[in-house]
Design a protein that fits this description.
The complex is a heterodimer of chains A (about 110) and B (about 110). Chain A is an all-beta fold. Chain A has no helices and 12 strands. In chain A, the strands form 3 sheets. In chain A, strands 2, 5, 6, 10, 11 and 12 form a 6-stranded mixed β-sheet that branches. Chain A starts with a strand and ends with a strand. Chain B is mainly beta. Chain B has strands at about 5, 10-15, 20-25, 30-35, 45-50, 55, 65-70, 75-80, 90-95, 105, 110-114. The N and C termini of chain B lie far apart (about 35 Å). The chains are: A mainly beta (about 110), B mainly beta (about 110). Chains A and B meet through strand 5, strand 6, strand 10 and strand 11 of A and strand 5, strand 9 and strand 10 of B.
Chain lengths: ~110, ~110
């Protein structure tokens, strides 16, 4: 079945440091890929998405590129802020199965001033 | 309507009791999903509805779990004879048919079984 493996945390960075959270996936079809973010005390919300190979999703300074050859969708940001502290989930949606999504276990990011 | 709402947000119950959670999706969304999340893990799929039809159930959903969406609007998830292993966050999400799999989540209902 489909699966998502993401970088184990927690990750602690200083403000303005560069961020990379690795994510790789296994899927039988051609999934869409997502990063969701969960801020403290809030529900999961979509951060960015990519629906086909070589697409780049971006939002709030975060980027991720759909790499079919390496089955990866790594999340990057050039300069993190304290407000980016959250849990980040990589996910895929099998477009042949009514949009059911499979999630990674999440990576907790803490950014210190 | 600004998002998916879930009720109650927290539920503490004793082992063996029944509990019911309610989810109100975004009004124009025809798909509704239930997920379960335990500490340190990502959401795990339980079941989903398209309109009022329950189209898929995970093997995680034992016979003690039942979900309904009677009029294709709100949904309920009932757990009968709760066990300590049922303690988790129960997440509801909704979407519409033509999107690319993006889910809109509620804030979740946290269940603690004593």
């Amino acid at each position: 079945g489909d699966s998502v493996t993401q970088m184990e945390g927690p990750v602690t960075l200083s403000e303005e440091a560069c961020l990379t959270i690795n994510c790789t996936y296994t899927a039988t079809g051609y999934p869409s890929l997502f990063w969701y973010v969960q801020y403290p005390g809030e529900g999961l919300q979509l951060l960015l998405k990519a629906t086909k190979a070589d697409d780049k999703g971006s939002n709030k300074g975060f980027e991720a590129t759909y790499r079919k050859e390496t089955t990866s969708f790594h999340l990057e940001k050039g300069s993190v802020q304290v407000s980016d502290s959250a849990v980040y989930f990589c996910a895929l949606s099998d477009n042949t199965n009514a949009g059911k999504s499979t999630f990674g276990d999440g990576t907790t990011l803490t950014v210190k001033p | 309507d600004t998002g998916v709402s879930q009720d109650p947000r927290h539920k503490i119950t004793k082992r063996g009791q029944n509990v019911t959670f309610r989810c109100d999706p975004i009004s124009e969304h025809n798909r509704l999903y239930w997920y379960r999340q335990t500490l340190g893990q990502g959401p795990e799929f339980l079941t989903y509805f398209q309109n009022e039809a329950q189209l898929e159930k995970s093997r995680l959903l034992s016979d003690r779990f039942s979900a309904e969406r009677p009029k294709g609007s709100f949904s309920t998830l009932e757990i009968q004879r709760t066990e300590q292993g049922d303690s988790a966050m129960y997440l509801c999400a909704s979407s519409w048919t033509t999107n690319t799999g993006e889910l809109f989540f509620g804030e979740g209902s946290r269940l603690t079984v004593l």
